[in-house]
TrEMBL record:
Subunit-structure text: Homodimer.
UniProt xrefs under InterPro entries: 3-OHacyl-CoA_DH, 3-OHacyl-CoA_DH_CS, 3-OHacyl-CoA_DH_NAD-bd, 3HC_DH_C, 6-PGluconate_DH-like_C_sf, 6PGD_dom2, NAD(P)-bd_dom_sf
Record Gene3D superfamilies: N-(1-d-carboxylethyl)-l-norvaline Dehydrogenase, domain 2, NAD(P)-binding Rossmann-like Domain
Enzyme kind, highest EC tier: oxidoreductase
Site (Important for catalytic activity): 132
Organism this protein belongs to: Phoenicopterus ruber ruber
Recorded GO CC terms: cytoplasm
Enzyme Commission code(s) on record: 1.1.1.45
Family of the protein in this entry: Belongs to the 3-hydroxyacyl-CoA dehydrogenase family.
Name of the featured protein: L-gulonate 3-dehydrogenase
């Protein structure tokens, strides 16, 4: 129920789904719910609340729970949002594997851990997938859906359909790869940025300006491949 978990809860509630927010500490859950309430009220007042329901209606869809079995009872989709620690995530999925049925989807928010490392050996491995959001998911709609060799195609399709339904912008990777796609593109930009600044070609401030007042404005609505396609010479 940290930053990503809270944001996911808001996204799913905006889509009209019942959400159970799970954590091991009651105080963490209580503060998370208070934070969600505050955010939703502010969003509603400013006209930026997502979904067709009011803030109160969306808040009524979110409940909190410190018992994992009770939290996932009746669930159709489980989104794990623990810290980026392989052993911790494997432990959680190992626990879930013992209590879920054959229909629920087990999804991870990991931004860099390969799904094959997370899910291998689980009884429900075919139902496991990565749904990597961009922080914060409530405001940045992209979700990278990353299957692994044992993921059932229906798991990918159902996850994709759900993300579309709640207003996110899902993309499907055909196979797992280190860093997925968003971070690989980001790393390439960061690497060149370090080089240009390090070699004294440009100042850090001006380098950032190249992105914020140049490429960034274009990339906010058009990707690099479409940019090339539509460029002056076509």
């Amino acid at each position: 129920s940290g930053l990503i978990g809270r944001s996911w809860a808001m996204v799913f509630a905006a889509g009209g789904f019942k959400v159970k927010l799970y954590d091991i500490a009651q105080q963490q859950l209580t503060s998370a719910l208070e934070n969600i309430r505050k955010q939703m009220k502010e969003l509603e007042e400013s006209g930026f609340l997502k979904g067709a329901l009011s803030a109160e209606q969306q808040l009524a869809l979110i409940s909190i729970c410190t018992d994992l079995k009770a939290a996932v009872d009746g669930a159709t989709f489980i989104q794990e949002c623990t810290p980026e620690n392989l052993e911790l995530k494997k432990k959680i999925f190992g626990q879930l594997d013992l209590i879920v049925d054959d229909n629920v989807i087990l999804s991870s928010s990991t931004s860099c851990l390969l799904p094959s490392k997370l899910f291998t050996g689980l009884k429900h491995v075919k139902q496991c997938i990565v749904s990597h959001p961009v922080n914060p998911p409530y405001f940045v709609p992209l979700v990278e859906i990353v299957p692994h060799a044992e993921t059932d195609p229906s798991t990918t399709e159902r996850t994709y359909a759900l993300m579309k339904k709640i207003g996110q912008s899902p993309v499907k990777l055909n196979r797992e790869i280190e860093g997925f796609v968003l971070n690989r593109l980001q790393y390439a930009v960061i690497s060149e940025a370090w080089r240009l600044v390090g070699e004294g070609v440009i100042s850090p401030t001006d380098l950032d300006l190249v992105m914020s007042d140049g490429l960034g404005m274009r990339y906010a609505f058009i990707g690099p491949l479409e940019t090339m396609h539509l460029n002056a010479e076509g």
